[in-house]
Amino acid sequence: MYIPRPYRHAILGVVAVALVLGVNVWLFSALNPTGNREAGRFGLVATDLVLFCFLMAYAGFVVQGFRVHWGWGCGLFLIPASALIFLLVHPRFAKIPSIIFAVGVLMFIFVVIGQKIR
């Protein structure tokens, strides 16, 4: 069965994230000194998802930067905070990575609120 290249990369990324989350949950359960294997599992998985969103947004900014100009790509790779300037100067190119970053920020806020409520 033939799967187009972008879909293969997306499937590989999802499998890699699932493996990383599984290993993190397993390690956290094994190393938990209280013996309560359920404590904190939600926070760990949610934090991993937030970090994955931020990593994907960073990669998206770098890729879009290189599509605009090699100087933007190098600048975004070396100085991640320059993504805000890139967003202001080239909003059309930075739209998708900034949406992914905003989703990560919202997830982070929900994780912090969820941990405070618990």
Structure at a glance:
This protein has 118 residues and is mainly α.
How does this structure look, described?
The protein is an all-alpha fold and 118 residues long. The protein is 80% helix and 0% strand. The chain has helices at residues 5-31, 41-68, 70-78, 83-89, 95-117. The model has no long low-confidence stretch (mean pLDDT 77).
The total count of strands amounts to: 0
The parts where pLDDT drops under 50 for at least 5 residues are none
**Overall radius of gyration:** 18 Å
Q: Helical percent range? A: over 70%
User: How far is the N terminus from the C terminus?
Assistant: 47 Å
Draw up the topology in text:
Layout: H1 5-31, H2 41-68, H3 70-78, H4 83-89, H5 95-117
Helix pairs in contact: 1-2, 2-3, 2-5
Task: Pick out its properties.
single chain, about 120 residues, 5 helices, about 0% strand, globular
